[in-house]
TrEMBL record:
It comes from the Eukaryota. GO terms for biological process: proteolysis. Residues 1-24 form the signal peptide. This is Aspartic proteinase. GO terms for molecular function: aspartic-type endopeptidase activity. Keywords: Aspartyl protease, Disulfide bond, Glycoprotein, Hydrolase, Protease, Signal, Zymogen. It comes from Eucalyptus globulus. SUPFAM superfamilies: Acid proteases (SSF50630), Saposin (SSF47862). Residues 321-361, 385-426 form the Saposin B-type domain.
Length: 515
C-alpha cells in the first residue's frame, strides 16, 4: 500500500506544469490558446509538501471554517474560493498586460473571477522575486485605480491594489481591464508556484471588489464570436500538447458525440445540479436525491462529501486514517440505527433522536457544546461532538444503502466498520497500491440524466516510474453543508476525460467525451 501524503502533495502528484504553445485565431472565428506540458519533477513535489508543515490545508472538513476578506461581495459563495489551493494546478497559459504587453503565465480558472498578476511594487515577499512583475510605468495604456484588494485561499493569500490596463489573450486585446497588482504573497504556496497569476473565468458575483471579469469584457467588447468558451485537456502524458482553451465557441475535433448540457443553478461558480454517484455501477446513496457540483479548471482533483469519498476509498483500497469516533458510533449505536431504519423512521432525524445531533427542522446539526478546560475561563468548541454528529450521519447513509441491498445486520456492521478504517484524514491522504488498478471499479457521476464514467486509469494519478512509482487517488474530501451543499468540485481529473463547454449566453455547462 502506498505512503500517505498531504493534500498539497496529493494535488501536485501526477500534475504537469504547462507552458504556452500556440496562440492562434482561425477562420472559424475561434480564439485558441494552446498549452504545453512538462512532467513535474520529484524535487518540486517534495518541496510542495512543505506547505502542509505550515498547517495549511487544501480542503478542510467544513466549508464553514473558511471565508474571504470582507471586500468580496456578500454572495455566500466565499467558501469554495477560500478552499482553493493553486499548488494543484495543472494547466497554464500566457497572457500579456499593458502596452507593449508584459507577459505572464497564468491559470485559467473557472473557479474564481479576478485577474491578478505580481506587481513591481511587491518588495517584501520572496515569491515576487521568483516571477515576472507588472510595471505600470512601462505601459502607455495604464490607468491608476488604487483600490485595495485582498484574497485568501486555502494555502496562501494575496493582497495588493486594483489597476486598469489592456490585457492581451492570444490575438484578443481586452481594453481597460481592471485587475489586481499583487504586492504581497505570504507563505510558501506562491513561492513554489510555476505561475505568475490567475485569470478567473467565473461569474462577477464572486469577483473581489466587484471587478468586471476578463471574460465579461471579451463579450461586452465584441471580441468573441459567441459568448461561449471551452476546455480540452490532453491527459496523455506521452504527448507534448497539453490541451486547448477555446474562446468564442467549441472545436469539434476536441470531443466525440453530443454534449449533455445542464443549467447553471447558482451564478458565482459554474454550479449545476448533479445526480447519483456510482461505484462499480452501484449507488452510493448520498447524492441519489441530488447534489450540487462545480466545474473548476483551477482544481486538479475531484472533491466531494466525506461520506462518498470514504466509500470510494474502501472500493479502491486507499489508505485512510482509522477514525475512533466512527468505530465508537458503530459499536454503541449501530444496532439502534439499523432498527430505526427498519422501522421506517426518517433517516435525517435518527442522529438527533439518539442524542448525537440536534435537529434544526431539516437535518441534524452538531450540538456545539462548549467546555471549560483545566479550570480556566477558556471555552473550546465541542469538536468531539462535531465529529460524532458527522460520523453518525455518515453511518446512517451507509447503513441505509446496505439495507437496500438486503444485507444482514452482522454484515452491515462489519461493512461500516471497514468504512471507518477508510475515512480520509483531515489532511486528505489517499494513497493506493499501483499494482491494484486492474481490480478497482469505475466511479461514475450522473449529470443531466447521463452517466459519466471514470476508470481507475483516469482517476488515479501516478507519479514516477518503476518500483519508485506512487499512486494517488484523484478524490479528496470536501463537506459543504446545506443549503449550499452537498457539493462536488469536478476538477481536471474529470474535465480531462470530458470536454467541457461554459455557455455564458445560455447559462449552462456541457460535457462530452474528450477526443
Amino acid at each position: 500500500m502506498g505512503t500517505k501524503l498531504n493534500p498539497v502533495a496529493v494535488t501536485f502528484l501526477g500534475c504537469f506544469l504547462l507552458f504556452p504553445l500556440v496562440l492562434s485565431a482561425s477562420d472559424d472565428g475561434l480564439m485558441r490558446i494552446g498549452l504545453k506540458r512538462r512532467r513535474l519533477d520529484k524535487n518540486s513535489w517534495n518541496a510542495a509538501r512543505l506547505d502542509l508543515n505550515e498547517g495549511k490545508l487544501l480542503m478542510r472538513p467544513s466549508a464553514g471554517m473558511h471565508n474571504l476578506n470582507g471586500n468580496l461581495r456578500d454572495s455566500g459563495d466565499s467558501d469554495v474560493v477560500a478552499l482553493k489551493n493553486y499548488m494543484d494546478a495543472q494547466y497554464f497559459g500566457e497572457i500579456g498586460v499593458g502596452s507593449p504587453p508584459q507577459n505572464f503565465t497564468v491559470i485559467f480558472d473557472t473557479g474564481s473571477s479576478n485577474l491578478w498578476v505580481l506587481s513591481a511594487k511587491c518588495h517584501f515577499s520572496l515569491a515576487c522575486y521568483m516571477h515576472p512583475r507588472y510595471k505600470s510605468s512601462h505601459s502607455s495604456t495604464y490607468k491608476k485605480n488604487g483600490k485595495p484588494a485582498d484574497i485568501h485561499y486555502g494555502t496562501g493569500s494575496i493582497s495588493g491594489f486594483f489597476s486598469q490596463d489592456h490585457v492581451e489573450v492570444g490575438d484578443l486585446i481586452v481594453e481597460d481591464q481592471e485587475f489586481i497588482e499583487a504586492t504581497k504573497e505570504p507563505g510558501i504556496t506562491f513561492l513554489l508556484a510555476k505561475f505568475d497569476g490567475i485569470l478567473g473565468l467565473g461569474f462577477q458575483e464572486i469577483s473581489v471588489g466587484n471587478a468586471v471579469p476578463v471574460w465579461y469584457n471579451m463579450v461586452n467588447q465584441g471580441l468573441v464570436k459567441d459568448p461561449v468558451f471551452s476546455f480540452w485537456f490532453n491527459r496523455n502524458a506521452e504527448e507534448e500538447e497539453g490541451g486547448e482553451i477555446v474562446f468564442g465557441g467549441v472545436d469539434p475535433s476536441h470531443y466525440e458525440g453530443e454534449h449533455t448540457y445542464v443549467p447553471v443553478t447558482r451564478k458565482g461558480y459554474w454550479q449545476f445540479d448533479m445526480g447519483d454517484v456510482l461505484i462499480g455501477g452501484k449507488t452510493t446513496g448520498f447524492c441519489a436525491g441530488g447534489c450540487s457540483a462545480i466545474a473548476d479548471s483551477g482544481t486538479s482533483l475531484m472533491a466531494g462529501p466525506t461520506t462518498i469519498i470514504t466509500e470510494v476509498n474502501h472500493a479502491i483500497g486507499a489508505a485512510g486514517v482509522v477514525s475512533e469516533e466512527c468505530k465508537a458510533v458503530v459499536a454503541q449505536y449501530g444496532e439502534t440505527i439499523i432498527q430505526k431504519l427498519l422501522a421506517k423512521e426518517e433517516p435525517h432525524k435518527i442522529c438527533s433522536e439518539i442524542g448525537l445531533c440536534t435537529f434544526d427542522g431539516t437535518r441534524g446539526v452538531s450540538m456545539g457544546i462548549e467546555t471549560v478546560v483545566d479550570g480556566k475561563n477558556e471555552k473550546v468548541s465541542g469538536r468531539l461532538n462535531d465529529a460524532m454528529c458527522s460520523t453518525c450521519e455518515m453511518t446512517v447513509v451507509w447503513m441505509q444503502n446496505q439495507l437496500r441491498l438486503n444485507e444482514t445486520q452482522d454484515r452491515i456492521l462489519s461493512y461500516v466498520n471497514e468504512l471507518c478504517s477508510r475515512l480520509p484524514s483531515p489532511m486528505g491522504e489517499s494513497a493506493v497500491d499501483c499494482a491494484g488498478l486492474s481490480s478497482m471499479p469505475n466511479v461514475s457521476f450522473t449529470i443531466g440524466g447521463r452517466v459519466f464514467d471514470l476508470s481507475p486509469e483516469q482517476y488515479i494519478l501516478k507519479v514516477g516510474d518503476g518500483d519508485s512509482a506512487q499512486c494517488i487517488s484523484g478524490f479528496t474530501a470536501l463537506d459543504v453543508p446545506p443549503p449550499r451543499g452537498p457539493l462536488w468540485i469536478l476538477g481536471d481529473v474529470f474535465m480531462g476525460q470530458y470536454h467541457t463547454v461554459f455557455d455564458y449566453g445560455n447559462l449552462r455547462v456541457g460535457f462530452a467525451k474528450a477526443a
